[in-house]
Amino acid sequence: MVEIVANKRPPRGLIPRLRRALSALMEELGVGDKAVTVILTGDRRIRALKREWWGEDEATDVLSFPHYEPGDPFVPPHLGDIWISLDTAKRQAEERGVPLEEEVLVLAAHGLWHLLGHDHRQEEDWGGFRRVQERILAL
Length: 139
What we know:
The chain has one domain: 3-Layer(aba) Sandwich (Collagenase (Catalytic Domain)), CATH 3.40.390. It is built from 5 helices and 4 strands; from the N terminus they run E-H-E-H-E-E-H-H-H.
């Protein structure tokens, strides 16, 4: 189940598409019986979260907050929260020449991959992120 909370008004049609695509991706990844919450917000709120949890005073595009320790054999029914800044997503979409909706889907897939315990500390770690980001756009 995908719950979406909009703290900032998203473009029309984004929420239903995001819910469908992220739910389908979760099914493909074998976690379709789990839940996530996606919070659509702005730069000010995501900057405060990044400062509080990572000690970095800057806005970012997506943050993931797992509700369990990835790698733990017990995976709870709710995997965690994915925070997406619509302000940063809009800028990135414009830079890439893609619709905002597409950028938000990519960020949701990226956030989900983090919730599943993956990180991108080294270049070779990006492969899984790229695969799920490409896959969500096809759903």
